[in-house]
Design brief:
16% of the residues lie in helices and 37% in strands. The chain is an alpha+beta fold and 156 residues long.
Amino acid sequence: MGQRSRRARPARQQQNPASRRGEAPKRVAKALGLGAQGTAVLRSRIGLLNDEPAELANSYYPIELAKGTRLADRRKIPGGSPTLLAEMGYPPREQADEVAARKATREEHEHLELPGDVAVLEIFRVVYSDNQRPIEVTELIKPGHLYKMGYHLPMH
């Protein structure tokens, strides 16, 4: 692993979740079944590994599901969103991930403090509850030099 530069890092408050509501990006709206101009709650955060930025995560929730809950505010959720969603009657049952490797954007490069020209892993995750109802879409950006992916699939 290369040496990280010690330039000014994004404010520490960015490590905590930020929450806002607004129009979901088209891909997210489609995955959540919101329609063309669907409204969603967005929770954004920077994940740390050994006190270093190691992940950008944007999680979207349908507004009718998130409104008035901890999903819609800035506080951390004890046990995370899966625990809260289950308590709300929407237990996560499965997820579908799409994974791609690509060059980091300028913003991603800055927020993740990437050394050199490191590629990132982009993960588009849809979480489903009962009856295949989509309850969360998360877009994750992970530095390629910090993560590797592996799979264990049953053979039938």
